[in-house]
Amino acid sequence: MDFSLTEEHIMIRDAARDFAQTELLPGVIERDNAQTFPDELVRKMGALGFMGIMVDPKYGGSGMDAISYVLIMEELSKIDASASVMVSVNNSLVCYGLEAYGSEAQKQKYLTKLATGESIGAFCLSEPEAGSDATSQKTTAIDKGDHYVINGTKNWITNGGRSDVYLVIAQTDRDKGHKGINAFIVEKGTPGFDIGPKEDKLGIRGSDTHTLQFNDVKVPKENRIGEDGFGFKFAMKTLSGGRIGIAAQALGIAAGAYELALKYSKERKAFGTEICNHQAIAFKLADMYTEIEAARMLVMKAAWDKDQGNNYDMSSAMAKLYASKVAMEQTVEAVQIHGGNGFVKEYHVERMMRDAKITQIYEGTSEIQKIVISRGVIKG
Ligand code: CAA
Ligand code: FAD
Q1: DSSP assignment, residue 364?
Q2: Which residues are the active-site residues?
C-alpha cells in the first residue's frame, strides 16, 4: 500500500492549484454575485486539459487517470465550486459517457470537441417528477424508424444554457420500465429544443442551471447511445464516476474553508493571544483536519478503484456521502472561526458554506447514496 502521490500527480495538482489561485480567485465573489462564469475561463481550463482529463488523447483528451481527476477537482473546488461543477459534469458525465458507451462516429463528432473545451456538455436525467426516483422518466422518445421524437421537460440542468451537446435520457417504451429508457445526444439549436431561464440559487451561483423543454424534437437514430433500452444503465454507470467528481468537489470546498480558517485563527487575536491558542478553536481545527483527511481517503480510494478497473459503485457513493457531510459541517465551522467576518462575502467562507450544500443533493442525494451503499452491503 502506498499513500504517496507520484511526481506526475504532484505536478498536475500544483498546476491546478496555480490556475485556481491566479485565474479563479480574482473575481470569484463578483461571479457569485452576478451568477456568471466567463467563456474565457472555460477556454483556459480547456487549454490546460481540464475539460477532458481522463479522455484518451486520440479523442483530444489529456489521458490522465482518475487520481489526477480528483486532484484537479479538489484544487479548483478550494477556490470556486462553480468552476469545478462545470469541469465535473463535462468530464465524468458527458465525456466519460460518450467515451465508454458511444459509437466511434459519436466520439469523432462530439467527444473530440468536448474533451478540449471547444464544446461544453450537459447531462439531462432529472425531471420535475423524476429526481431521486430516476426510473420514473416522463420525457418520451418515440421511435419513428430512422429518428426519435422527444417530448418533455428536464430540470436543474447544469451547464444548461451554455452547452453545445446535451445527453438526454428519455422513455421509449413505458411497458418495459427502466429497460425501455434510452439516452440520446441532442445538439443545441435543434428545432423544438428550448432553454428556460437560469435558476437563482443558494450556492454554486456561477454555474448556470436551467430547465429544458423538448417539443417534438427530432433526433436521428445514430444519436442514440448504445443498444435500445440501455439508457437507464447508461445513466447509472455514468453517475457512479460522476459521484467521484462531486466527492472531490466536496473535499475541495471543505479543504479550502479549512485552510482559510487555519490562517485566520493564527492572525486574529482575542484575550491577548491568537485565537488558535484557545483550546475551543484548536480542537475545531483538529476535528476539521481529521474529518477532511478521512474524506480524502475515501475520495482517493474511489478514484483508485476506478483506475484499477474495480467496481466503484459503492466506493463512489461512500466517498460522496462522507465528503459532502464533511463539506457541510466543516464550512459551518470555518464561518464560526471567522466570527463576524465569516458572515461577510469578502472572507469567502460564507460562499463555501452555501456551495457545500449542493454536494449533498446533486448526483444523488445523501439518502440515495445510503440506498446504494446499503443495497451493496446487504448483497455482499
Ligand atoms: N450500474 C449498472 N446498472 C445499475 C446501476 C449501476 N450503478 N444501478 C442500478 N442499475 C440497474 C439495476 O441493476 C437495475 O437493472 P436490472 O433490473 O436489469 O437488474 C436497474 O438499473 C434499476 O435499478 P434499481 O432497481 O436499483 O432502480 P431504483 O428505481 O431502485 O433506483 C437509484 C435506484 C440508485 C435510487 C437510482 O434511481 C438513482 O441513482 N437515483 C438518483 C438519481 C441521480 O443521481 N440523479 C443525478 C442527476 S445528474 C446530476 O445531478 C448532475 C449534477 O448535479 C451536476
Ligand atoms: P426528490 O427526489 O424529490 O427528493 C426530495 C427529498 O426526499 C430528498 O431529501 C431525497 O433524498 C428524499 N428522498 C427521495 N426518495 C427517497 C427514498 N427512496 N428514501 C429516502 N429519501 C428519499 N440533474 C441532472 O439530471 N443534471 C444536472 O446537471 C443536474 N444539476 C443540478 C444542479 C443543481 C444546482 C441542482 C439543485 C440539481 C441538479 N440536478 C441535476 C438535479 C439533482 O440531481 C436532483 O435535484 C436530485 O437528484 C434530487 O432530486 P429532486 O430534487 O427531485 O428531489
Answers
A1: S
A2: 363
The pLDDT of 159-170, averaged and rounded, is 98
Using alpha carbons, select from 255, 212, 238 the residue that is nearest to residue 78.
Answer: 255
Q: Name the pairing type of β-strands 165-171 and 121-124.
A: parallel
Q: pLDDT tens digits for 59-71?
A: 999 999 999 999 9
In tens, the pLDDT along 122-158 reads 999 999 999 999 999 999 999 999 999 999 999 999 9
Distance CA 349, CA 258 (A): 9
Ligand 1 near 349 CB (within 6 A)? no
Asked whether the whole model's pTM tops 0.90, one would answer yes
For 250, what's the count of Cα atoms within 13 Å in the CB-facing half-sphere? 38
Site to probe by mutation for ligand 1, drawn from 236, 320, 362 as the one with most ligand atoms within 8 Å of Cβ, is: 236
Contact 280/337 with Cβ under 8 angstroms? no
The rounded Å distance from CA 57 to ligand 2 centre is 34
Q: How far is the CA of 140 from the centre of ligand 2 (A)?
A: 20
Nearest by Cα to 178 from 112, 122, 217, 232: 232
Q: What are phi and psi of 42, to 5 degrees?
A: -65, -45
The distance in angstroms from the start CA to the end CA of the chain is 24
E strand or H helix at 209: strand 209-220
Residue 2 in this model has a pLDDT that exceeds 90: no
171 C-alpha to ligand 1 centroid (Å): 15
Give the residue whose CA is nearest to atom 38 of ligand 2: 156
Best residue among 233, 237, 243, 360 to mutate for probing ligand 1, ranked by most atoms within 8 Å of CB: 233
- Distance (angstroms) between ligand 2 centre and the Cα of 132 equals 5
pLDDT of 308 above 90: yes
Handedness of CA 255, 260, 265, 270 (dihedral sign): negative
Q: How many CB atoms lie within 10 A of CB 41?
A: 19
Rounded-to-integer distance, Cα 325 and Cα 81, Å: 16
Q: How confident is the model over 238-295, as pLDDT tens digits? A: 999 999 999 999 999 999 999 999 999 999 999 999 999 999 999 999 999 999 999 9
